[in-house]
Design a protein that fits this description.
Layout lengths: L3 E12 L24 H4 L10 H13 L3 E2 L2 E2 L2 E4 L9 E4 L6 E2 L2 E3 L4 E11 L3 E4 L6 E4 L6 E7 L6 H17 L12 E11 L9 E6 L2 H20 L7 E6 L4 E7 L9 E2 L6 E2 L2 H9 L5 H10 L5 H7 L3 H13 L3 H15 L12 H12 L5 H14 L3 H8 L5 H13 L2 H9 L3 H15 L6 H12 L1
Parallel strand pairs: 13-14
Antiparallel strand pairs: 1-11, 1-12, 2-6, 3-17, 4-5, 4-16, 6-8, 7-8, 8-11, 9-10, 12-13, 14-15
The structure holds adenosine-5'-diphosphate (ADP), magnesium ion (MG) and zinc ion.
Adenosine-5'-diphosphate (ADP) binds next to β1, β11 and β12.
């Protein structure tokens, strides 16, 4: 394996976050009873005419702007002809010659991956292979869902880099509000092109393509498997044939599916039903002005403005849900370091599923909780217990504050402190003679908290203790 370079190019399909489909007004929503979000256009009845969804075009432009693509001033739609029952009109409306975006790049840790293009097309329906005798069923709900297809140059050289690329791409699309990229729903799917060549050789080897991988893990496994397979073929004197292979995730291997089609097999031609789309520069600039901060920019802000470490900033910008949550909590409790500590430990430890980040305390309540700790109205330990009860039972923070809050206060607290101090003369002596009196002091506050099970007004307790130890 060490004698070979691996060359990888990706084609990534992402379903765009629009309300309606790309060429008709049917709902763009996942699932639903089969064939209920359909009309003559998106099931592909003869003669039905497509109307372009402007939002879909804008989202592709937006995606392109986050990756420094050039936005074409004229975009054209072509018919890509092929018959498959999930695309009943026997062609897909797609783009070949003048896609919406050209060029661009995504920067990984150690390299720049150049993009070839991003174009807009329609998704196909879904074949449901029934195990019962009825055979294969078709659900057209997904037909006509807007898809952006991004094609990279063959700049990726390992399975790890491919996953790093996809992770960055997914992050960008989610942050920009372009796509939700729900992998388990097929919202982001990837075709992987792999070839190998002798180390250092400038000539590319023959590639194979594996289609429709829908998890980063299978992309990783598929690349490793395929590169190894190709090297073995070459080492045994064989040749790689250009073909489409099917990745079988259950068995961890790929098998030949069909000889690779080339673009001439699809007989692309401009779709006479579609007008060319002019994209005025003002529109591009308007769209640019709506772009939120991207993960890398947010990361820089977190480190620069809030003084967080790179490690902390990386975690907080891993997912938009998390960075939004962080920023929102800051509005209620303006201490970035403390909020970060709580999110990285208490919040993330309680999150079960990192795909959906279901955080069961509102930013407002977390802010309140941290204020209570800061004002010493509740102890840290009690605050964690309160958090658990809010998280697990949805209890109200105001009620919990009464229960846990510093309700041992005033004269009662004073009497308690006096009793503790007078019954521990040895500790009092230590405090006065020790090099580290603060340690002894903390021991006293600890005693007060222990006796009140954390419910003493901590600020007051400290004041009383200092007074008596003077
Ligand atoms: P097609 O539709 O035939 O797959 P595209 O041009 O849309 O063609 O996509 C080709 C993909 O294959 C691109 O991502 C490109 O970077 C990649 N690619 C091209 N040549 C090679 C190669 N020799 N090895 C690996 N990937 C390649
Ligand atoms: Mg391809
Ligand atoms: Zn429709």
């Amino acid at each position: 394996m060490q004698d070979y370079d691996i060359v990888i190019g990706l084609e990534v399909h992402s379903e765009l976050k629009t309300n309606s489909k790309v060429f008709c007004s049917c709902a763009n929503s996942f699932g639903g009873e089969p064939n209920t979000h359909c009309c003559p256009v998106c099931v592909g009845l003869p003669g039905a005419l497509p109307i372009l969804n402007k939002k879909a075009v804008e989202l592709v432009i937006k995606a392109g702007l986050t990756m420094d693509c050039e936005i074409n001033d004229l975009a054209v739609f072509e018919r890509k002809n092929y018959f498959y029952p999930d695309l009943a009109k026997a062609y897909q409306i797609s783009q070949l010659v003048r896609p919406i975006c050209i060029g661009g790049h995504i920067d990984l840790k150690d390299k720049k991956v150049r993009l070839n293009r991003i174009h807009l097309e329609e998704d196909a329906g879904k074949l449901v292979h029934s195990t019962a005798a009825i055979g294969t069923l078709i659900d057209y709900n997904r037909g006509g869902v807007p898809l952006m297809e991004l094609v990279t140059e063959p700049d990726i050289s390992s399975a790890d880099e491919a996953v790093e690329f996809l992770t960055k791409l997914r992050q960008k699309l989610i942050y920009a509000g372009v796509a939700e990229c729900k992998m388990e729903q097929g919202g982001m799917r990837c075709d992987v092109n792999v070839s190998v060549k002798k180390k250092g050789s400038s000539e590319f080897g023959q590639r194979t393509e594996m289609k429709n991988l829908n998890s980063f893990k299978s992309v990783h496994r598929a690349i490793e498997y395929e590169a190894k397979r190709q090297i073995e073929v070459l080492e045994n004197g064989g040749q790689i044939v250009q073909e489409t292979r099917k990745w079988d995730d259950n068995h961890g291997k790929s098998v030949t599916m069909r000889k690779k089609e080339t673009s001439s097999d699809y007989r692309y031609f401009p779709d006479p039903d579609m007008l060319a789309v002019e994209i005025p520069r003002e529109d591009v600039e308007r769209i640019r002005s709506t772009l939120p901060l991207m993960p890398d920019q947010l990361k820089a802000k977190f480190m620069g403005e809030y003084g967080l470490s790179e490690y902390e900033s990386d975690i907080l910008t891993k997912d938009k849900v998390l960075s939004d949550y962080f920023l929102e909590t800051l509005k209620h409790f303006d201490n970035p370091k403390e909020v970060t500590n709580w999110i990285l430990t208490e919040i993330l430890n309680r999150v079960k599923d990192e795909e959906s980040f279901d955080i069961k305390i509102t930013p407002c309540d977390l802010g309140k909780l941290l204020s209570l700790v800061a004002e010493k109205k509740v102890t840290r330990t009690n605050a964690k217990e309160m958090l658990t009860r809010i998280w697990e039972n949805g209890e109200k923070i105001t009620a919990l504050e009464k229960e846990y809050g510093g309700n041992v206060d005033g004269d009662a607290l004073k009497a308690l402190v006096e009793r503790i101090v007078s019954s521990n003369p040895k500790a009092v002596e230590d405090y006065r003679t020790s090099d580290t009196p603060e340690k002894v002091f903390r021991w006293f506050t600890g005693q007060v908290m222990k006796e009140t099970r954390g419910k003493a007004n901590a600020a007051k307790a400290e004041e009383f203790i200092r007074e008596l130890l003077k």
